[in-house]
Amino acid sequence: MISNEVVELSRLQFALTALYHFLFVPLTLGLSFLLAIMESVYVMSGRQIYKDMTRFWGKLFGINFAMGVTTGITMEFQFGTNWAYYSHYVGDIFGLPLAIEGMMAFFLESTFVGLFFFGWERMSKLQHLFTTWLLALGTSLSALWILIANGWMQHPVGAEFNYQTMRMELTSFSELFFNPVAQVKFVHTVAAGYVTGSMFVLGISAYYLLSNRDVAFARRSFRIASGFGLASVLSVILLGDESGYTVGEVQRAKLATIEAEWETEEAPASFTLFGIPDEENMTTHYAVKIPWLMGIIATRSINQKVDGINTILERKRGRIKSGMIAYENLQRLRQDSNNQVAKAAFEAHKSDLGHGLLLKQYTDKVIDATPEQIETAVRHSIPRVAPMFWTFRGMVFCGVTMLFIFAAAFYFNAKRTAHKQRWLLRLAFYGIPLPWIASELGWVVAEYGRQPWTIANILPTHLSTSTVDAGQLYLSLAGFFVFYTVLLVIEVFLMLKYVRLGPSSLHTGRYHFELEGESHA
Amino acid sequence: MSTNSLPLSIRPKKPPLHTWTFGLEITIAVLVKFLLLAGLWWLFFAGQKKPMNEAIIAQQLLGEQSPPTTIYKPQEQQP
Q1: CA–CA distance from A509 to each of A17, A219, A366, B13 (Å)?
Q2: B30: distance to nearest CA of chain A, Å?
Q3: Cystine design at A418: which of A412, A466, A470, B44 (Cβ 3.0–4.6 Å)?
């Protein structure tokens, strides 16, 4: 049996690299679309300032793209080394969207990044605009394939276990592509990226306005960011991935733990706004509830109940016992593939095989598991409540704060007084980290919320890791830490340098640092 | 509105405009990144290939000690 230390270190290493990688991704997603919008305004209006805006924000996009691209490849390193069992068991399915993503990222996105930067003098206005839109599209498309892969881990569809090869095999590409969890995840994640790009442009424009420099440039950037940001943050909140929470048992468990909903809520289910979850006594102290809201969020209706943790655990108990039967018959089938009785029994219970495998963490003899071992497996078959409860609320708090900032910016822009609202400019500037915090917390909710599984209901996390040495994991963890820290330092250094320079970095002679004795362009 | 109201660390100051070009800075940054990435690969992953096949995974999941005798073999299906 693989030690818990190796499992936890492998998880920590993957989580840290994924979280580091995702510092770069949302800004690339968001800025690419903002560049396309700015350049469209330039092409339609013919006004030079919009071209300058596209080129300046494009520089910051370029820094982020250059530092961010291939930072995700370290996760592929880990699949082979630290997650070998996982890679073998589900590689046929998981590898497919990853490979397509690689093609999309390298051939579409990277090609159009090159054309965007070097094509200004070589292409017509319309050709260049087309390139910029393709860059935005390519960026979002590569996100789509990664999220299809991740959505499959959350809600595995279109695949079947083959007991002869001991692997999951793809049975339907369309089911994999149209997986409802992946689709809502895509909308949620990409829109969150648009919010990040908008907050970045809004905050830096606010900085220029607070500094009373490049005012015309900053006001226009602020205006575009506030409009696009408001639309994006509303889509994150209203069309977000909440609707995906009712698809599949792992998603339902995730929802119940986010809500600290111990008992099933009859329709119309209420939403716990705040409270202190007590896992030992399975209750939430000082719960402040909003009637009906949970039903609307989770089921988009007021006449459906929402499962509580106790109901889910009861179902898990049944599935673990069914999984033990699947496990026993799989062993028989492996010894004699012509055993028809074992085959029939396995087919009847194979959807619960993963639940039987949960027992491997507590005993080597799954079919002889004691009632105590089964109860331990049941108790640990869903994620811990407190981290889910608080992380989700942290993410929502950031989202609501950004909604307020974008709504206020949009309102004062409509009144043409946004540049005079000093409090709003300060709020926008200091709010720059909010979308990153929200995105990172969102990934923690999504991935920690899937535990104890790597592939929901199919492959437990403790059976996915390789038999590697813990010392080797500590060393590679330190290596990753150094690698990403160096990248982050370079990124922050270059970003700060070019943000301070502002549009003067374009060397057009029209902006702040190039104008002697003038305060703004 | 005075720039003095901003924190010192972000207060605008005139940076040098014509030191290195943007393109050169990005090229160096990307080179540093690829060198580090190659170093990481070489140090921690290149020699760590894990052999993995059906028998190994069956041993991990089911505790099978030896390869079963009647198991499916892909090559048998070849014409």
Answers
A1: 42, 19, 74, 18
A2: 6
A3: A412
